[in-house]
Design brief:
This protein starts with a strand and ends in a 36-residue tail after the last strand. Residues about 360-370, about 375-385 and about 390-405 have low confidence and may be disordered. It has helices at about 70-85, 90-105, 105-110, 130-145, 155-170, 195-210, 225-235, 245-255, 270-285, 295-310, 355-365; strands spanning about 5-20, 30-40, 45-50, 115-125, 145-150, 175-180, 215, 235-240, 260, 290, 315-320, 335-340, 345, 370. The protein has about 400 residues and is α/β, with parallel strands linked by helices.
């Protein structure tokens, strides 16, 4: 079998009202998603999504004409390309989709089949008042979520800590709470000062009193020594690693014993194959692996396959941008409810490959979008035919506008 073509197409979904992210003061008025389609001479087609794939055309020739089943070679090639270009790991996701189809198995089974569903935590992303966050928490609790993540802006710490207290008062001990400081990396142009380790330690102490499960990205992602010192002296778990560029960075974090929770996103950071390897190493050291999933619905599913393969936990991130009083706002790959207690879970797709009939439904839902050229703004609305089933689609995407990556 040989790869005959690799196509990338980007789509934009208008957002009304705009999405005001807690980590970015600029309101997002569109959500963009780039879809990667890999075609073969035997009729199998793989689909992936996640990062923007900007600039990939210059490297397409490194893959076309090669056997899609030679995953190790493709991963090593992508690692060399990542040094010079962008984060092209959605291509690996599409290749694994082909491998799974060829083998007649879900990718999660090929990766270990440790679980067929994972408990989902609601990862909130919008900037809200403390009262609104508490109301959203109660709504999410009623829907079956047993855990929720809250983002705190470093320039509005008092309000952020008040929000955590308000949510804890609202839900009591019935939900686990996580807090994200989003300090490991920056949005383009953000040069405001970071919180220093002393300030972060004080925040961690307050969050420990509120029973927070983990504190995410509390320091610069390259400050391995600072993270290790914070972890050693903290009563709350330290999480991070979602956007590293290399396996070496993750191994350095492991060697420094800098994190309790490893969160590398397999379509944004180091890919599925390497991501699984580091997840197993983390688990061997009695650390948690629960990946960042804030790209789009197909990116979430790719992470779900790896997470289910190795048995991640205790939760899997389920991004949501919901507003108080609404039933749902977030990825179109919705979690299911499991058991009489209405626990929200994310079932792993059980069809061959990584794109299931459930995500096929998501493709059909997103059928009124604007196709835009890579790196530009295009005309439209246009409809795209699903490469496998012929359905009009753009990919099941979380409501994280702006395309590519987002904190998680």
């Amino acid at each position: 079998m040989r790869i005959t073509d690799i196509r990338t197409r980007r789509f934009a979904l208008p957002l009304d009202p705009p999405f005001v992210a807690a980590w970015d003061p600029t309101p997002r008025r569109t959500f963009e998603a780039t879809i990667v389609v890999v075609e073969t001479d035997e009729g199998l087609t793989g689909v992936g999504s996640g990062d923007t794939m900007d600039g990939f055309d210059a490297y397409r020739h490194l893959f076309v004409g090669r056997d899609p089943m030679r995953i190790a070679d493709h991963v090593r090639t992508l690692e060399t390309v990542t040094f010079h270009g962008g984060r092209y790991w959605p291509l690996e996701a599409a290749l694994w989709d082909i491998v799974g189809q060829a083998c007649g198995q879900p990718v999660s089974v090929l990766f270990g089949n440790a679980a067929d569903r994972l408990c989902a935590y609601a990862s909130t992303g919008a900037a809200r008042s403390p009262a609104e966050r508490a109301e959203v928490a109660l709504d999410l609790q009623a829907e079956g979520f047993r855990a929720m993540k809250i983002r705190i802006r470093r320039d509005r710490l008092a309000e952020g800590l008040t929000s955590v207290r308000a949510v804890r008062d609202a839900v009591g001990d019935s939900m686990d709470l996580m807090v994200d400081l989003n300090q490991a990396w920056r949005m383009p142009g953000d040069i405001d000062p970071s919180l220093d380790p002393v300030a972060v330690r004080r925040i961690a102490d307050e969050l420990a009193e509120l029973g927070v499960l983990w504190l995410e990205e509390p320091l610069d992602g390259n400050d391995f020594a600072g993270l290790a010192a914070l972890r050693a002296g903290s009563r709350v778990r330290i999480a991070g690693g979602e956007m590293v560029r290399t396996v070496g960075e993750l191994l350095a974090l492991l060697d420094a014993d800098a994190l309790d929770v490893y969160q590398h996103d397999v379509v944004l950071a180091v890919g599925l194959w390497r991501g699984r390897m580091v997840a197993e190493l983390a688990r061997a050291r009695n650390r948690w692996f629960t990946p960042h999933t804030w790209s789009n619905g197909l990116g979430l599913v790719a992470n779900l396959h790896v997470a289910a393969g190795v048995g991640a936990g205790p939760y899997l991130e389920f991004p949501t941008t919901r507003r108080p009083g609404t039933r749902h706002g977030g990825t179109s790959c919705s979690p299911s409810r499991s058991g009489s207690t209405r626990t929200a879970t994310s079932p792993c797709p059980d069809g061959p490959g990584s794109v299931s009939t459930s995500t096929g439904t998501a493709w059909r839902r997103w059928n009124r979008t604007v196709e835009v050229p890579i790196g530009g703004v295009g005309p439209g609305p246009r409809r795209w035919r699903h490469p496998r089933r012929g359905a009009a689609a753009t990919g099941g995407a979380v409501s994280r506008p702006g395309g590519g990556r987002a904190p998680g």
